[in-house]
Amino acid sequence: MTTIDSQEPIWLAGIDNGNLLVTLRQIQTLITMYIFQKATDLTHRLHNGMPIYPGDPSPSFESYSTLEKEGVNLTKIVMGSHTGTHLDAPRHFIQDGIGIDQIPVNRLMGEAYVADLSQKPIGSGITSRDLLSVLEGNILIDDIVICYTGCSERWGDDSVNHNYTYFTEDAADYLVSKKVRAVGVDFLSVEKFNALEPIAHKILLGNGIFIIESLSSALKQFLGKRILMICMPIKLEGGDGAPARVVAIPIG
Ligand SMILES: [Zn+2]
């Protein structure tokens, strides 16, 4: 089965006694109803002692001034650029890759398909075969692909931080072949823990595919569904990554 190019113009005949050149994506937008009232937050809270990728800087959120003492509440924040729910920019592993501030905002909102990969044992590698079975026929070119592994149900469980479900090299190659826009996962990384070579990151980011990591288990309600996803990372100049607020909007 081939993947339909949603951006490729096609002719619609017989409209208004003529022909109309439109893309499948434009048709999809016209007939799609986004249910903004049911927008769902897929973001983890940032707080002291929160789960982090082992070895990353420990985040700290301290009161810098208070209403009682200084007349204003203000917090001092110290954290790594990949803390909590976040977006990886190509610069994370590609030397001349674009930074987080150079990603056009229209690339950060779009339709996503939420695939259920929770049948994979936690700690195992997702292969191209696994992806083919859940994605084929369900995704369009330029879609965002979100993979629910079930690891997010164990957020805060230290043993999973060193042994979460990840993407193999051929899974990353498959996603490149499908020309997806971005890939999201519900745990700390798309990469096998402590991998000698960050191959999944390099393949995805090297092909301009953004990576969204540490989505929350709120994803579970959207398994097998399409959603509108909005992922807005903070605008860190030249940033290799940045914490983001990620929201799912159901499609009616
Ligand atoms: Zn990251």
Descriptive labels:
single chain, alpha/beta, seven-stranded mixed β-barrel, two-stranded antiparallel sheet, 5 helices, globular, binds zinc ion
Strand content: 25-35%
The end-to-end distance, rounded to whole angstroms, is: 26 Å
Please list the strands of the largest sheet in the order they lie side by side: 6-12-11-9-7-13-14
Bound molecules: zinc ion
Structural class, from secondary structure content?
alpha/beta
Could you give the order of the helices and strands? EEHEEEEEEHEHEHEHEEE
Mean pLDDT: 93
Shape: globular
Number of H/I helices? 5
Sheet having the most strands: 7 strands, mixed, barrel
Q: Extract low-pLDDT stretches.
A: none
Describe the structure in brief.
The protein is an alpha/beta fold. 15% of the residues lie in helices and 29% in strands.
Overview of this structure, please?
With 252 residues, the protein is of the alpha/beta class. The protein contains five helices and 14 strands. It has helices at residues 24-31, 128-135, 158-161, 169-177, 199-206, and strands at 9-15, 18-23, 40-41, 60-65, 74-78, 86-88, 109-116, 125-126, 144-148, 166-167, 182-185, 210-213, 226-233, 241-250. The strands form four sheets. It has a seven-stranded mixed β-barrel. A two-stranded antiparallel ribbon has the order 1-2. Zinc ion is lined by residues 82, 86, 88, 213, 241.
